[in-house]
Protein: Quinol:cytochrome c oxidoreductase iron-sulfur protein
Amino acid sequence: MASNKKYWKSVEELNENSSIVETLRNNEFVEEIPTDEFLGDKNKLSSSSTTRRDFLKYVGFSTAAATLAACEGPVVKSIPYVVQPEEIIPGIADYYATTIADGFDFVNVLVKTREGRPIKIENNKLANAYSGANARVNASVLSMYDSLRLKQPKVEGKDVSWDEVDLRVRASLKDAKEKGGNIVLFTNTMASPSTDKLIEEFVTEYPTAKHIVYDAVSSSAALDAYEKAYGTRGLADYDFGKADVIVSVGADFLGDWQGGGYDSAYAKGRVPKNGKMSKHIQLEANMSLSGANADVRLPLTVAEQRAALVKLYNVVVGGGASASSTSSDEAIAKAAQQLKAAGSKGVVVTGLDDVNAQLVVLAINEALQSEAFLPEQTKYVRKGDAKAVSQLIKDMNAGNVHTLIMSGVNPVYTLADSASFVEGLKNVKTSVSFSLKEDETALSATIAAAAPHYLESWGDVMIHKGHYSVMQPTIRPLFDTRQFQEAILLWTGNNTAYYDYLKEVGKGFAADLTWNQLVHDGFAIVGENTAVNASADFSGAVSELARTKKEEGFELVLYTKTGMGDGQQANNPWLQEFPDPISRVSWDNYLTISRVDAENLGVKNYHVANGGLNGSYVNIEVNGVKLEKVPALIQPGQAVGTVGLAFGYGRKAALKEEMQVGVNAYKLYNNFDNVQSVKIEKASGDHEFACVQLQNTLMSRGDILKDTTLEIFNTKDAKEWNIFPMVSYDHEEVRAASVDIWESFDRSVGHHFNLSIDLNACTGCGACVIACHAENNVPVVGKSEIRRSRDMHWLRIDRYYSSEDTFAEDVDKKVNAKGFVETRSAFLTLEHPADNPQVAFQPVMCQHCNHAPCETVCPVAATSHGRQGQNHMAYNRCVGTRYCANNCPYKVRRFNWFSYAKNSEFDYNMNDDLGRMVLNPDVVVRSRGVMEKCSLCIQMTQATILKAKNEGRAVKPNEFETACSAACSSGAMVFGDVNEKASDVTKLAESDRAYHLLEHIGTKPNVFYHVKVRNI
Structure:
């Protein structure tokens, strides 16, 4: 029988109208627990003496108190269109073809926009497009939303209108014309036919004007050599897909060498087909992307590289120039013979800033009649003239420059002797700097002219001869900006809009295309290239090259990082947090040094308790210029006697404090030569690196990354070089993956997604990492959190070194070790990379296991499996137990420790309204306290399905894509539906080279890899 008795805690409850009773009834606690205030204040947490037990008591009053503070999502109010643009359909992405041409990167791209906002860069995949967007190009969309951009013009530091700028500049130009004063247009490489025509008209209007082109990272030596040989200032193009033997002498052609963009063609020859693949031999000082992908890599000083070029010339062309001996003479002689035997299927490239070295390479390729060497297809992506720049500085300091108009250059930061340039500016009556930001040069100039981002601009580009590209705006200018071209038109008295001017010029290049079709496609092929004949003193160049000697001391080799490039996007947090493919370090540049030289100098690298990497500082000096407290990183593969330092860091102006990292290597870039003689001494103190990879070698991870040689691949059965784990089942040895304790459902119905990753085609460039950032709203966490292994990258590219000379020798050492003592010793030595290791890259993301161990341990079913093969994450269900991360054998889950959006502790793009414009509305911005990881871009696969449904058709083969597969220009990543028999991924899944990570544990992933084959 139920009781009708009534109980109360106090007499106050007898008063039904009491406000106290109402409060007690509706609130578990009389006073609000300040959980959010406490947990959100880093200083309070760090200074608190509260024990772990007390802390748990504090936050454990109720599940509601803790989870409410951690998981409450922000409310964002929407503002509707007053008049909706016709071309914009809410929820549907629009794509526009355009071209990036920022003076360093030149690529045809597609820009994804949502509700009028550009949010992502993709490759233009039309036939003959000059595609291959690297990490910087993919990240360039975020640079448009930089809150520190120059928002309007300034004169002597004060905001002004464009009318005032026009009055001042016109007066200066008029004064210069009347007095015969020199006018200089000082720009980066624009390779723009319409701009060239504009400048010609400007010079006609102002006869004392001249145009000087300046590349921060110069290719002047290569340009001079090409001009001597072929009579035109440009660069030879290359198609590495047509080469059987590639010899590179100091040229990182998979990186930024001469504009880059070679990885797609290169990868075609690197995937073994019909038992054949190209052979790549790399001679270099710094370990580069190209060196890491080479079959044979010879670490040589720059002096030895010059000698090697002479030896190659003597064998291939025929000559008797004597060259000094090197540490790898035998290997060089072998490479020369292989090159000669390849004939027209061989090619040589060099990155040495030496006209003679460049001429020798042209001579070798001409002698080979190399099919991969395309001198007739002149590239215009580098046009800088180092001699003209040096003369300009002299003229400025002599008072011979009246008006200086700059665009796309930052010489105050990038010139080695920037002090002379700044001093010269004082003698220039009027100086104008067209710049996206109030950078070092804009601060020093009379007028800082706010320039638009390329996504806000019209333009055209001739990337190489016969290939005309158009640049179109994808959004109205965010600020009061003006293009350099628009200003030149006005200042020459031409009131034509630049768009109309461009349209007229474009008609001459459009061939059979209409203007609208040209803008739609983004480019046009203009005529055919005709053969060119070389005429230069090649034998004299060989003799000069043979006479060069190594200078005393260390050789400093200056280079560009794949992520940072020349540094113009230094305020881009995606690029700052992007781990360097080789060192796996972010948020820094550093002096790379060999183990031998490090030991001699007392330089050390070591890991601390939390897994972070620490290292020594050094002081370096070049021609009297000193850089102090430069972090030193011991780099396997660095040639003994050489060190490396990356450009693009050490900037201060117009950068957020978090992005003001590293040292300025341009200060050491004397005479635009990337090789300098340097003095090094160890300095006091230790530097904290933000390195995302603790282990270096592949030690005992042979079932994670499999590799073999081309000979074994061709002569032995697949089961010998692609070994699958076997188990005993019913007294028979069967493949481990065939034995299953799970009850599986039929996956042959509907879509079933797989991702194929070919380790032969993957160059480690990292474009996929940035594309994933952009598509999936991955937050930037900063150096301090990276140090704590709290990076949020959904996709990582593991880089492994061999401990012996090759990975095969590592395996032999491990297998042949006998007994406990010998085995222990072998494993300890296998933890340390060789001085010249083999290198392998492996992209790793959530493997989307069909039998996922994460799914079985989640207490709230936040992670579960979808019918289409994707491992799902329901963020609203996740309570952050992290059991799934502990149970994941691939370690691909990331716990979201903080609210990265609208948090001043993480002052990156998500902390301001402008930066948040880049966010993809199809993907939620995750709140703190949840687990996140790769989703195989489920929003993209569902959009493809819905598009096909709306059009009343089936999804086409190969129509499905993820952000990473779309960004991969080398074709290493292929995504698709394995239930569609005509799709590429289905065929790749049946390859003898295909395997899954850790197959023996029975997780049955939907991501599979292809065994790496080396041509050695």
Observations:
- Residues 553-689 form a domain with the Barwin-like endoglucanases fold (CATH 2.40.40.20).
